[in-house]
Amino acid sequence: MSDKMLLDAAGRLFEAEHGPDAWVGPGSGSMEKGAPIWAKIEEMGLTLGLAPEEAGGFGADPLEVLDTIRLAGRFALPCPLAETMGAVALISRAGLDLPEGPAAFAAPAAGSVALTREGDGFRLKGELPRVPFARGASVVAVVTALDGAPHIALVAPSSCTITQGENVAGEPRDRLTVDAALPSSAVAPSPLDAGRAFALGAALRAIALAGALERTTEMTVQYANDRVQFGRPIGKFQAIQQNLSVAAGQTAAANAAAGMAAEAAAALLDGGSDLAPIAAAKIRTGEAAGIVATIAQQTHGAIGFTMEHPLRLFTKRLWSWREEFGNEATWSRELGRTALSAGQGGFWPLISSY
Amino acid sequence: MTAIFDFPAPPEAPNSDALRAEVRAFLAEELADFPPRERALSWTGFSADFSRKLGERGWIAMTWPKEYGGHERSALDRYVVMEELLAAGAPVAAHWISDRQSGPLILRVGTQEQKDLVLPKIAAGECFFCIGMSEPDSGSDLAATRTRATPVEGGFRVNGTKVWTTWAHKSHYMILFCRTDGGPEDRHKGVSQLLVDLTTPGITIRPIKDLTGGEHFNEVVFDDVFLPESAVIGTRGDGWNQVTSELAFERSGPERFLSSMALLQELIGRLSQQPGNERAEVVIGRLSAHLMVLRRLSRSVSGMLERGENPALQASMVKDLGADFEQSIPDIARSLIECEPDQTAREEYAATFAEVLLSVPSYSLRGGTREILRGIIARGLGLR
Ligand SMILES: Cc1cc2nc3c(=O)[nH]c(=O)nc-3n(C[C@H](O)[C@H](O)[C@H](O)COP(=O)(O)OP(=O)(O)OC[C@H]3O[C@@H](n4cnc5c(N)ncnc54)[C@H](O)[C@@H]3O)c2cc1C
User: Fold this and answer.
1) Alpha-carbon dihedral sign for residues A207, A210, A215, A218
2) Across-strand partners of B205?
3) Cβ of A228: how many Cβ atoms within 10 Å?
4) Which end of chain A is more exposed for a tag (fewer CB within 10 A), N or C?
5) What CATH code is assigned to B252-380?
6) pLDDT tens for each residue of A271-328
7) Residue range B202-216: mean pLDDT, rounded
8) Under CATH, to which class is B131-237 assigned?
9) Residue B269's closest chain A neighbor by CA?
10) What does the domain layout of chain A look like in residue ranges?
11) Do the domains spanning B16-127 and B131-237 agree at the CATH topology level?
């Protein structure tokens, strides 16, 4: 037995509410299925996992909390757990009121929104593209600058124009057009600037990718053992074995990367500013996602190319999440700039410091 | 199955910064004039003199008991020294195998006489080992070994041919893997590991030029070579288990992904002269990410070994991922810098590029081929 009570409890909950049985049949994988799970997740308190104890949290080990995001990836949960946890992590540290229900956070590119003072309060005006689950969120925590310093502004999607969109996995990614007056109680200095909040999002995606990768590889191995052609399970063919061992290696690398991301995300929330491990994790999990999805689809044959087979719940998340909060190219440029400015003599000292 | 993907966070090495700084200072001085094209040989580069200096510093046999010349330090400290040596392209081949593999084997299952004979000399950086496993007709299929040690009065008569034996021509001893009992049909049974003094009469060592033009590996012929009974390492007939239990040590270390560092560093040196080269940033960022993650995987396995677990499967994954990484470097370099590889070039970049280009095919052969490793992983997945 592991001594990770929170992780074990989350695993049991996800298995019961959105285990393999829920992945097949009419409506499987749809967001509508998320409501009952969500109620139980909130009941468990999981969404408060990254809040400090003095601000409504329950003193859980942040690494264990973040590992539940990997689990959520393993179960393709149709609800905004990572988004809400991230929003709560930021909101609680800014000393603002914790949200009721699902929440999201956004770290828009400079210039896309403007936060200004207006009367006793503030005004937030601009565009927030592709906000996860915005249509169902009670509040979106927008990290942006006010007078040159990072602030959090809480805006209710109900006060915005919502243009619905979704990623290829069917998860809502809505555009919010905001022009809202905010009371002074909805704005506070942010513990993380927009760049670091974006990196927090990247870390959450890297961790979730690792979970989805585990599941994709496991399902594919299982399928290779079950599917018989030429009188034997296709997993007995060496070509299939070699491909699946590649998938396993990529999954292992993604898991190690996720561990790195979790440690760095926890450090960010403690005031740290090192984004390199998160960059590396998002790059590596994103690359693994492409490789493993290809192998999984190929191994499943035509059945995997249908809307009926549950494989899609995972491969589509791999293809979606690797793009969100910066893809491999975005983060490679960032990390590469750091590496190249370290130069020939500084490169190894940089790498070996992690 | 999830256990296969589970690489726990590597343990922290306390005070490793001081050790790292010490090794770097030593290397900066020792290798001040050591050119990139020589560094490109990585852990194939041989210098008895350098190994002896490392021995003097206490950087060989770091984890072994003091009574055998060791230093009773942690595996994590040893890891720091190994990776610093590799990152600098230090010529570590002379003692690498004895420190990584042969010494630990003898420490674990050797006789008192064997331990006393070789361990203190290995620790001093004065005693070098090679590994005699592969044969002309037995490569991946190691159990097909034909070399035979036939029991005779007081010992064995050995006949057979080993091949690809790295640095045999500069080594003092070989750990010979051969059949002592039964026949070929017994496969994993009846094979043993024997300690061979390479000055023993009847042994002929012939260097073979490899793709780089260097003489790194050899053919070693045994013609009626007499070995005493006391040459048996561990248990006679148990060689297969002994060999396979070494594999996690052999396959998970930093030498499984740092072999192309000399070229990578030269490449970064050139690219850092071109600020604003976005394509270079993307490519080097990706390589940095891979390297950071490989290090974490490898250090995680090191932690498992330290805790006494047997991560043979995880080690195979590290080696497979690591070889992919190391092998990709020349192609990536040529996508960024136009240069005709030339070992004879006066210019270091072209020579380093050539040396690494010609070395990388071996990375997915030595120590277990890519296909064999992937077969092991597939077995771990329950497919075979
Ligand atoms: C630089 C270098 C240094 C070396 N140093 C040493 C040393 O010091 N001591 C030592 O004992 N050996 C050493 N070796 C030998 C090394 O261990 C062997 O090269 C390796 O085990 C493969 O054997 P082989 O070359 O005979 O190839 P083979 O086993 O003949 O393989 C040829 C090809 O067939 C593939 N293949 C074989 N079997 C299978 C299978 N079942 N399924 C799918 N594909 C298969 C292999 O993957 C490979 O691609 C060294 C090799 C190199 C390149």
Assistant:
1) negative
2) B220
3) 11
4) N
5) 1.20.140.10
6) 999 999 999 999 999 999 999 999 999 999 999 999 999 999 999 999 999 999 999 9
7) 98
8) mainly beta
9) A344
10) 1-94, 99-190, 194-342
11) no
Q: Which A positions 104-133 lie with beta carbon below 8 A of chain B?
A: none
Rg of the Cα trace of chain A?
21
In the numeric block, which tokens belong to residue B255? 């030498």
Predicted TM-score of the model (pTM): 0.97
Contact A45, A57 (CB under 8 A): no
Find the closest chain A residue to B87 by CA distance. A348
Phi, psi (degrees; rounded to nearest 5) at B233:
-100, 125
The amino acid that residue B295 corresponds to is R
For ligand 1, whether the C-beta of B131 sits within 6 Å is yes
By the 10 Å C-beta count (0-12 exposed, 13-18 middle, 19+ buried), A50 is classed as buried
- Yes or no: say if B1 and A255 are a contact pair by the CB < 8 Å rule: no
Class in CATH terms, A99-190? mainly beta
For A193-202, what is each residue's pLDDT tens digit? 999 999 999 9
Q: How far is B31 from chain A (nearest CA, A)?
A: 14
Strands (DSSP E) contained in chain B are 129-132, 148-152, 155-163, 173-179, 191-197, 203-209, 215-228, 232-233
How many CB atoms lie under 10 A from the CB of residue A13?
20
Question: Residue B331: which of B364, B272, B283, B363 has the closest Cα?
Answer: B283
Q: DSSP label at A55? A: G
What ranges do the domains of chain B cover? 16-127, 131-237, 252-380
Instruction: Determine the Cα–Cα distance for residues B228 and A16; give it in Å rounded to an integer.
Output: 65
Tokens of B334: 């040529």
Unique residue bearing structure tokens 């942010």: A190
Domain A194-342 bears CATH identifier 1.20.140.10: yes
Give A-chain residues touching B266 at CB under 8 angstroms.
344
Q: Which amino acid is at B115?
A: K
